[in-house]
Amino acid sequence: MQLHPRYFGRNLRDNLVSKLMKDVEGTCSGRHGFVVAVTGIENIGKGLIRDGTGFVTFPVKYQCVVFRPFKGEILEAVVTMVNKMGFFAEAGPVQIFVSNHLIPDDMEFQSGDMPNYTTSDGSVKIQKDSEVRLKIIGTRVDATEIFCIGTIKDDFLGVINDPTTV
Amino acid sequence: MSGEEEENAAELKIGDEFLKAKCLMNCEVSLILEHKYEQLQQSSDDAVNQVSQVFEKSLQYVKRFSRYKNPDAVRQVREILARYQLAEFELCVLGNLCPETVEEAIAMVPSIKTRGRAQDDEAIEKMLNDLSLIKKFE
Q: Under an 8 A CB cutoff, do A36 and B54 touch?
């Protein structure tokens, strides 16, 4: 962590910690996924003054909660958009797309005010805000987010039926 | 990022770092993030507006998909699952999805059957029964 001299003084440690949180929370990498929250500082090492500038670099060891989706993992998500290509869902900060090829054949797209996928007997419907269980079959990481492809075509996947509402 | 091509959660191929790391279930993350959010609220009004979108979305997600709300229940779930020689990752997927049958559990976490620890069906069934008892009495 690099710190400008204006932050030196009594509150150096606090400034370092809050800068760490601001810089690191919310970022994502291919290796660790999204950093959701810093939960603790383990150690702050001695600062090293950079040649030519007044900045000081501190090595900081910290603990944090990360969210990292894996290929082959099964998890639950909320549907955010439905169209004839398939539907988009979100699991926390991660976006997942399920193509219509990976939606069971007995579900058909219905356009309208609330586009959805419905089974022929109307018993199961997937629309915005539905909760679905899906399997991740691919992940792609770019600078600011992780994007996944999923399927609901396997056993035990699809809309989650909450027993309390059935 | 070695082994990225072979990554496969179904076979528990998730990389050394994550195999050794502590895995958290949604309900545990919910307790952690809520606690942090309360701390931020107490420290200054401004801090609450500065939480990243990632934090907000994650908090909403884990709150919505936590099967167990009560901290004691959450602790019991972890204790029960810990008795069964599961990897952290497997433990959390089971705690998050709460499969009702042995068949479902194996479909959700295929690695419990394939990694040579030979979890027999009876053991898996007992584990699922114990989990559903906690939910009933939460």
A: yes
